[in-house]
C-alpha cells in the first residue's frame, strides 16, 4: 500500500505540529499532535483514523477555540488539505 505523509506546523493553537499519514485512497491511517490538550487531541486522532480526508474536512473545518479564529481540529483540516496534494510514497 502506498501512503502520503505530512508534518504540518500549526498556527494560532496550543498544538505546534500535526503528523498525518493517509493511504492511496485518502483514508487517514495515523494522526499525532505535538502540544495542545493531550486527552482531547488523542480523542480527535482516534476518531479520524479510518475516515476519508474529505469527510473529516467537512466535519471539522472552521471550528473555533474560544475567541481564536481556529482550533486544533481546524488546523488538522489545513494539514489534510495539504496532505491530499502530497505525493504517494
Walkthrough of the structure:
- The protein is α+β, with helices and mostly antiparallel strands.
- It has a single domain, classed as Sufe protein. Chain: A, CATH 3.90.1010.
- Helices cover 37% and strands 27% of the residues.
- It has helices spanning 38-48, 53-60, 72-85; strands at residues 3-9, 15-23, 28-35.
- A 3-stranded antiparallel β-sheet has the order 1-2-3.
- A hairpin with a 5-residue loop joins strand 1 and strand 2 (15-23).
- Helix 2 runs antiparallel to helix 3 (72-85).
- The longest helix has 14 residues, at 72-85.
- The radius of gyration is 12 Å and the shape is globular.
- The mean pLDDT is 97.
Helical content, roughly? Answer: 25-40%
The appropriate CATH architecture is Alpha-Beta Complex
Category by helix and strand content: alpha+beta
Uncertain runs are none
Largest beta-sheet details: 3 strands, antiparallel
Q: CATH top level?
A: Alpha Beta
Strand runs, count: 3
The backbone outline, from C-alpha atoms, is globular
Distance between the termini: 9 Å
Q: Give helix and strand order, one letter per element, not per position.
A: EEEHHH
Please name the CATH topology.
Answer: Sufe protein. Chain: A
Strand order of the largest sheet: 1-2-3
Q: What proportion of the residues form beta strands (DSSP E)?
A: 25-35%
Number of helices: 3
Concise structural overview:
Helices cover 37% and strands 27% of the residues. The chain has 89 residues and is α+β, with helices and mostly antiparallel strands.
